[in-house]
Amino acid sequence: MALVTAVICSLSLLQAGSDGESIGNCPFSQRLFMILWLKGVVFSVTTVDLKRKPADLQNLAPGTHPPFITYNGEVKTDVNKIEEFLEEVLAPPKYLKLSPKHPESYTAGMDIFAKFSAFIKNSRPEANEGLERGLLKTLQKLDEYLNSPLPDEIDENSMEDITVSTRKFLDGNEMTLADCNLLPKLHIVKMEPQIKLLPGCWSVFFGGGQKISQL
């Protein structure tokens, strides 16, 4: 129990919003926030205004941005490593296992944020069309994955030919680490009026919002 408490108390630094206080639009901070929320952990949040970093933060993790955790004097700044750490420590039977069953679910849409950032930050008009096309192609690929049945949706003994998935999320009907990684990024993409989410992407985004609101 002491181990879990130590982890919870240490994971309290998230990037602040434009007002310097509310939780910002950082998908990496939101990813860890969602993991703790889905696991049912009681935790507190301390936001950090990157324009006015407190001295103790700079001393603790110089040159790094939130989110990060400290544990037993060790600072963990890599979001992927933090995710692995939380999944290992906050484990069953007390906490939900959030690792996806299908490895493909975790890699689906993994390059969307990079494609979106390249498109939205582009300053060369002549490159805009190609970058937008690349982003839309990535969204289309994700949409196809979401609409394709997973192996456990197909009953080999059934006469029914299932061609379209009915699952709610990337890996099934329950949210996993894959959704925690993808949904904050989809949220940012959705805010750009030039880009429209495809039906499968919109469905998992809407379902994620409903799930979080029920927790």
UniProtKB/TrEMBL annotation:
Domain CLIC N-terminal: start-end pairs: 14-93
Gene Ontology molecular-function annotations: chloride channel activity; oxidoreductase activity
Annotated signal sequence range: 1-20
Localisation: Cell membrane; Cytoplasm; Nucleus
Chief subcellular location: membrane
SUPFAM superfamilies: GST C-terminal domain-like, Thioredoxin-like
Keyword Heme: no
InterPro entries, per the entry: CLIC, CLIC_N, Glutathione-S-Trfase_C_sf, Glutathione_S-Trfase, Thioredoxin-like_sf
Catalysed transformations (reactions): iodide(out) = iodide(in); nitrate(in) = nitrate(out); bromide(in) = bromide(out); fluoride(in) = fluoride(out)
UniProt similarity note: Belongs to the chloride channel CLIC family.
Matching PANTHER family: CHLORIDE INTRACELLULAR CHANNEL 4-RELATED, CHLORIDE INTRACELLULAR CHANNEL PROTEIN 6-RELATED
This protein's name: CLIC N-terminal domain-containing protein
